């Protein structure tokens, strides 16, 4: 436990570290003590990497994944199948699917899901940009890979209705994933089976 025996500078670092997801006060204290004992060059390199992250990382203007270039590595890869777009809620979900190796098309990151009770409507996530991509790009299939939560299901249903009249195949990721689960925590095999077992919704 952090006490007044800790120097104020160390207490402040522990306070900031403990705000990171998955880090409690004890873990934050261990990291702070490690940084205190580490060579100054290592601590400075970490600080610089964090500053560069905030300065240089932005969203890809095409799919809204994170990048430090004009396009993200996936959109810029000429080997990707451009006729398929997999729609996910977050970059963490995109990374989980990428790690499974089951999908070689492109992505569209909504940066959220519909949650009317929390005031998140269609204009608050990247739905308009998805529709604009379908106008610009030659897309044959849209795979809805939103999470199997009430918000993810509501988002998928909304998108299905929007895409009904468009000349594109719309599929939903299969239910190899437990209800209430989160894509970023699902194992690779389950993700691969869910993608392979996707079903057409219209």
TrEMBL record:
GO molecular function ontology, one term from the record: DNA binding
Role noted for this protein: May play a role in DNA repair. It seems to be involved in an RecBC-independent recombinational process of DNA repair. It may act with RecF and RecO.
Organism: Desulfacinum hydrothermale DSM 13146
The protein's name in its UniProt record: Recombination protein RecR
Residue span, Toprim domain: 83-178
GO biological process: DNA recombination; DNA repair
Zinc finger extent (C4-type): 60-75
SUPFAM superfamilies (alphabetical): Recombination protein RecR (SSF111304)
Family matches, as Gene3D superfamilies: 3.30.60.80, 3.40.1360.10, 6.10.250.240, RecR Domain 1
Pfam families attached to this UniProt entry: RecR_C, RecR_HhH, RecR_ZnF, Toprim_4
Family from the record: Belongs to the RecR family.
Keyword terms of this UniProt record: DNA damage, DNA recombination, DNA repair, Metal-binding, Zinc, Zinc-finger
